[in-house]
């Protein structure tokens, strides 16, 4: 073999070796091409867990899950498809579809994004048959909330799609995920949401699933969220909302020995099922734009009202604690409290009252004089500023002007003005008569229905309370929510509550509450009429029953309802009867309330 042949053979062998080495490198050493091939045939699908269920205190199901489906897109995997057909299936316009795809592309071209959410079972079946026409799209199983009864919308809350702020703050969520927006759904999002899983599947060239990848070796099971047991009594809640139909206002009922909220009603309300499914956005917009009924506004937590005569109970209690009065202290009335040319008028009643009779008759003169002497107590305080601050500290200890930091989102603290506020308003030259209206629950003071109900719980407990809350157990009915087991002492001598309680009993026996006394049950009560500068006064009533060991306290306010005894008192009394007896026998009273309309 001559030299030229040997050169050619060596060249051929060299070239062959180069090709073999490169082939080995491509198939064995360099994995990225293999991985790319696999990626073209593999889809990683997030398995979203079902949210935890929500039960009432008697194990009745208040919120459960129903099957739904989301249409997802991976922008980099899309190719030409029939946009008209997809728009028809989703019932959206081409412009809307284009915006949704652009949003997904802006988020990530490689990660899945949602194009259409909460598709119903019937539409899902039709869509699944057409999926081969839409490369880059796939359907993801989801669940949506369902409410067996159209009640408790404000307190249960609703879920919605996460926004950019959430995505930046918590890497658990991805674009298109759902999160609790309000109510219990928001307050207990961490417990309810569960843990995501993952499913890895093979797909063919027609975008159809062909089975698990590696026999499910990389799959992860989604873990359902924890179920919650609420403090609410579903039957009582439903009854309360029924009584408040065609009225604007709220009811809050609490079990005083635990702080558990038995029902919390805010009307006008809405069916929580309206904020579920593909129609959620449309329905939410309609509710939001309803400026007459304002159904999304939670009056029980977010509305502040003048407390009216129910506030006299707090002022009487503070005066006893400050030793400004005793239970036997008598003040003359004479038709009202006189301040020079101005008189705070009083309801007609017999004689000069002591504390108990003043509560029974709701004597304005008595409580104006009591409040005046509390702020004018120069034996104990050098200035009105010091005396007012001491009064305000007591009021705050009774739960007014503060937030409870409970499990009720968006709770407001009401208004109890500071010393600085009055100093600025009156240029530091003010006296008890400058703020005398607060002695009878008018003027600058404003409280929430939740705060007022909690105050009556303090009276029922003779000086302490547990933070009002709506969830009593998490994960299991036996796993008690330990956030609300601390007894909060309000700093009042227990003996001072005896006179307050006796006065409230007399309201029911011989005062403005006698017409709503429940046969066979000793009740404590207090009516109130909260002044309203924008129209007819608000009707207010508080009560507790039974007297000796109260199991329920109720606050009711009906906007523009007039006198407390007219509307609020009957409603609160019916709520109490329903809870304690399991039924209502005063059907004529119930019928009268149901026929009342203030909207």
Account of the protein in words:
- By secondary structure, the chain is of the alpha+beta class.
- It folds into three domains: 3-42; 44-230, Penicillin-binding protein 2a (Domain 2) (Alpha-Beta Complex), CATH 3.90.1310.10; 234-270 and 293-595, 3-Layer(aba) Sandwich (Beta-lactamase).
- It is 35% helix and 19% strand.
- The protein has 21 helices and 20 strands.
- Strands 2, 3, 4, 5, 10 and 16 form a six-stranded mixed beta sheet that branches.
- Helix 10 (234-243) packs antiparallel against helix 20.
- The longest helix is centred in the first third of the chain and has 27 residues, at 3-29.
- It is elongated.
- The model has no long low-confidence stretch (mean pLDDT 90).
Main attributes?
35% helix, Penicillin-binding protein 2a (Domain 2), 3 domains, 599 residues, five-stranded antiparallel β-sheet, six-stranded mixed β-sheet, alpha+beta
């Amino acid at each position: 073999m001559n030299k030229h042949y040997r050169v050619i053979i060596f060249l051929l062998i060299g070239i062959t070796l180069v090709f073999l080495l490169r082939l080995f490198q491509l198939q064995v050493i360099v994995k990225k091409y293999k991985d790319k091939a696999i990626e073209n045939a593999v889809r990683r699908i997030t398995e979203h867990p079902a949210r935890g269920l929500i039960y009432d205190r008697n194990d009745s199901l208040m919120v459960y899950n129903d099957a739904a489906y989301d249409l997802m897109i991976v922008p980099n995997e899309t190719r030409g498809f029939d946009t008209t057909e997809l728009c028809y299936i989703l019932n959206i316009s081409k412009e809307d579809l284009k915006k949704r795809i652009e949003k997904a592309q802006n988020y990530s071209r490689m990660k899945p994004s949602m194009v259409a959410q909460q598709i119903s079972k019937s539409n899902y079946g039709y869509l699944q048959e057409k999926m081969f026409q839409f490369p880059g799209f796939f359907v993801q199983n989801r669940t949506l909330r369902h409410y067996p009864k159209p009640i408790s919308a404000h307190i249960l809350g609703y879920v919605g799609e996460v926004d950019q702020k959430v995505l930046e703050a918590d890497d658990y969520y991805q674009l298109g995920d759902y999160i609790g927006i309000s109510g219990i759904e928001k307050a207990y999002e961490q417990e309810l949401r569960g843990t995501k899983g993952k499913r890895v599947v093979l797909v063919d060239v027609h975008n159809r699933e062909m089975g698990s990848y590696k026999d499910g070796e990389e799959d992860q099971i989604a873990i359902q969220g924890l179920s919650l047991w609420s403090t609410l009594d579903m039957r009582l809640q439903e009854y309360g909302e029924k009584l408040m139909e065609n009225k604007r206002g709220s009811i809050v009922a609490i079990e005083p020995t635990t702080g558990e909220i038995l029902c919390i009603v805010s009307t006008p309300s809405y069916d929580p099922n309206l904020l579920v499914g593909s129609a959620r956005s449309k329905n939410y917009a309609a509710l939001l734009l309803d400026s007459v009924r304002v159904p999304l506004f939670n009056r029980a937590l977010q509305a502040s009202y003048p407390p009216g005569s129910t506030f006299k109970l707090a002022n009487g209690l503070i005066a006893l604690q400050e030793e400004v009065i005793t239970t036997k202290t008598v003040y003359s009335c004479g038709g009202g409290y006189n301040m020079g040319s101005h008189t705070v008028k009083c309801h007609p009643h017999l004689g000069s009252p002591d504390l108990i009779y003043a509560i029974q008759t709701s004597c304005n003169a008595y409580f104006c004089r009591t409040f005046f002497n509390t702020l004018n107590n120069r034996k104990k305080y050098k200035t009105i500023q010091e005396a007012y601050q001491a009064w305000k500290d007591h009021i705050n200890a009774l739960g007014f002007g503060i937030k409870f930091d409970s499990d009720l989102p968006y709770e407001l603290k009401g208004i109890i003005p500071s010393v600085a506020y009055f100093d600025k308003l009156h240029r530091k030259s003010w006296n008890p008569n400058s703020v005398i209206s607060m002695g009878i629950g008018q003027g600058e003071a404003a409280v929430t229905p939740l705060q007022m109900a909690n105050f009556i719980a303090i009276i029922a407990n003779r000086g302490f309370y547990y933070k009002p809350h709506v969830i009593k157990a998490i994960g299991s009915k036996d796993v008690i929510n330990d956030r609300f087991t601390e007894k909060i002492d309000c700093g009042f001598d227990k003996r001072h509550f005896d006179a307050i309680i006796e006065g409230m009993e007399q309201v029911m026996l011989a005062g403005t509450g006698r017409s709503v006394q429940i046969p066979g049950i000793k009740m404590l009560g207090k009516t109130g009429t909260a002044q309203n500068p924008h129209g007819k006064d608000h009707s207010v009533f508080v009560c507790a029953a039974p007297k000796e060991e109260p199991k329920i306290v109720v606050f009711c306010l009906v906007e523009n309802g007039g006198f407390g005894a007219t509307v609020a008192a009957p409603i609160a009394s019916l709520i109490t009867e329903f809870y304690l007896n399991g039924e209502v026998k005063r059907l004529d009273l119930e019928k009268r309330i149901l026929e009342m309309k203030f909207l």
